[in-house]
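Q: Protein A?
A:
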Amino acid sequence: MTNKAKADVLITAPDKREHGEATMDLLAKVFSGWLGYFTLCDLWKNRMYHGHYDWDASQIAIADDKVVSHYGVWGYNMRIGTGRVKVGGIGVVATHAHYRKRGLVSKSAWASIEAMSKLRYDMTVLFGIDNFYDRFGYVRAWSDMNYKINLKDLPQEKPKPQLRRFALKQRDDIDEIYNRENRVFAGTAVRPTYIANRCTMPSHGYLWKDRRGKTDGYVVVTTEGGKFCCHEYGGDVEQILRAVAALGRKDGHREVHFIAPPYQSALCKRLRRSTCEAEIRYRKCGAAMIRTINLASTLRKISSELSRRLKKSPFSNWKGELLVSDPREKVLLKISGGKITVAGPKSTKHTIRGGEEIAQLIIGTDDPDEIIEQSGIKLAGDARKLVSVLFPNQYPTLAPWDRY
């Protein structure tokens, strides 16, 4: 799609052959103070050519015959319990210094939302600066919780079997473990996402194998600003902790930081049974943010998960119709025999009516009562008892590897 931002500026989806190199050049220049021009050229090449970058949903601004702004979209499947929804992850938003304050990012954001709608995306997620993206309908998606534990409180035993170093790029065996262990954790991506190494920090991967020679688990660690961190893991929890402890002690560290692990994971539960610290930072209009693109499609794709939640509740025999509406759509949930199906809108006395915060209910950002109180979502009829059953707190998060 294309449209004119000004007489001399064109907002359009980038063409891979025509605009690819120019876009990478722009991004490397804008962010050159971070890692350096040539390192960033390689990084953007990996992100755009060896992953899930969507050339049709992304937007660039062209002025004076050159690419002067970029608004990137990475498409992937996101988990909401057992459901899977198509998400557009927004990243690498940048404008050439000489073309700022023309509203190019705003025009690109709206053009991208329109493109994602046509391309049948369900939701969109970004990690943004404070007090900017809310104007496009984005609301807080989650707050990452990081854990810190002293290495003396981790197992003293050496990891068995031995650790083997592996290159940080897409591997089917690692993806298999990750997808299996995160199969119901809200916010996580269904892998593969990136094919090549797209980590911006000097991270190191270590794996171990079972007696048959099959990869049985792994950890990814790095040192950031003097802090020893574990960004990702998979496999037996005690082996993970042994591996992390051994690697940290080898390099003289006293503690390890686990970065944004799923709250309901076996490792997090194990940490919470130990002596550790959990740090969580809430940002109202920044960091991880979310917006619905297609409410009906989203609810349809998670209808089996909603049915599963209902069947486990005291209201499993409830029968009727529940209307859910956000600023753009009204969607009817037909409930009977513990099964939920999605239909076109119609009048009913059981309703959940809200603004953009309906996206928070869907992904389970917080306890539903808290979301409702803070956002002014209106409930009527039996929606007051159904909302906590259908949309509980899911503690969503997205692993650092999959971010855009």
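Q: Protein B?
A:
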Amino acid sequence: MVRLPQQFTTMTDMHESNEARLRELLRQARPSPLLPPRFQESVWRRIERSECAPGPVTPLAWLDALAARLLRPRLALAGVAALLVLGGVLGAAQGTAEARQSARAAYLSAVAPNTIR
């Protein structure tokens, strides 16, 4: 039979005591970093700045906002994909038109006399 020290009456008490000591050791081993000076003040200033109503909309501001949205990685990838698909469709349409024109010219040269060409 295992004898516990006098301060512990049960194994649960001993376990809770060890857990509390471990928690305290972990808290001491990982100190919380100090915040930079005037941190709260700068946070409130940024919040106030973001809540301010936007100024008048100018074409340059509108263009800047559009560019900022389009340059986000998700939208940029979608834009590149759309341009690739559009390029493929236009290339296929132009290739089909040129193939038809080439086929017509070949047919005319085979069937028609040299004076019509």
